[in-house]
């Protein structure tokens, strides 16, 4: 039997079991040397429950592809995910094809309805079913699966780690002007409601510059902000990859898949470029999500992908955790635009 290793998987529950029962050996599925390896059959307990969410379909796809698409369960290091799944379950699952029993669009459909309600009908006391099923924390009504996933998406950033903030300004700025906007002065953003200040940062200088959308010859002030103490952030950059589906009971898979699809959509809505002509009303749904997470998930902010390159954006609810360095003035000397036919 070809051994697999902890590096073959993303799911933390699988990785934990391998860590407990491993032998140090060479992995035959990702070719890692001196890895924490295990007989793949020992992992069947995690994969057998997935058979309940699929049905055979000659026009479908391989089970390994479905699991990778829905849960991102295998690492990119795996040479052949179909062969690995066959070693875990049985070779027959490398031959048969399947499709999902459901489309798992329930939460997504309700989210679209909810967006319309809080934008145009009922902003402060919504009646939509997704509010009562996911976001209503009164009397324990909130979805336990939703909060368990949010907890799994929390990441720790340590004192000493740093981020960048950029501002376009004609006059010189000092570090006192590089924190979040003064209370009451904040315009509506993709994460913050009007009047409520958040701190928007990036992990790279190039990302924070791109996010403020400078013109040619703009003068941009860039500050480094250094954490004074540890913080906890909710990482929305890749919910499927970072969530352990194997930590949930089989009966909860349907709900978890639907929630993951919703979080993925929310992440894309946070990341997509904001059109200058967009109304502040368009921000309201993502503002709601960020305010909800701030109030009920015990975190210091959120992370989402930048639409400009490979960087990440960070939204912090406060700036008291940072030492802010004096900004450096930079002049934009050129801008490149990529385009394609619509």
The first-to-last residue Cα distance is 51 Å
Briefly note the structural class of the backbone. alpha+beta
Q: Low-confidence parts, pLDDT < 50 over ≥5 residues? A: none
Overall residue-averaged pLDDT value: 90
> What count of structural domains?
2
Pfam families: RES
Organism: Serratia proteamaculans
Domain RES: 174-328
Protein name: RES domain-containing protein
What does this structure look like?
- By secondary structure, the protein is an alpha+beta fold.
- It contains eleven helices and 14 strands.
- Strands 6-10-11-12-8 form a five-stranded mixed beta sheet.
- It starts with a strand and ends in an 11-residue tail after the last strand.
- The model has no long low-confidence stretch (mean pLDDT 90).
- This is RES domain-containing protein.
- Pfam families: RES.
- InterPro entries: RES_dom.
Task: Produce a short descriptive summary.
This protein has helices at residues 12-21, 44-47, 63-71, 81-88, 106-120, 129-135, 144-152, 205-211, 239-242, 253-271, 284-296, and strands spanning 4-5, 23-25, 35-38, 54-62, 97-100, 154-157, 162-168, 199-202, 219-227, 231-235, 301-305, 312-316, 322-324, 328-331. The protein is α+β, with helices and mostly antiparallel strands and 342 residues long. Helix 5 (106-120) packs across helix 10.
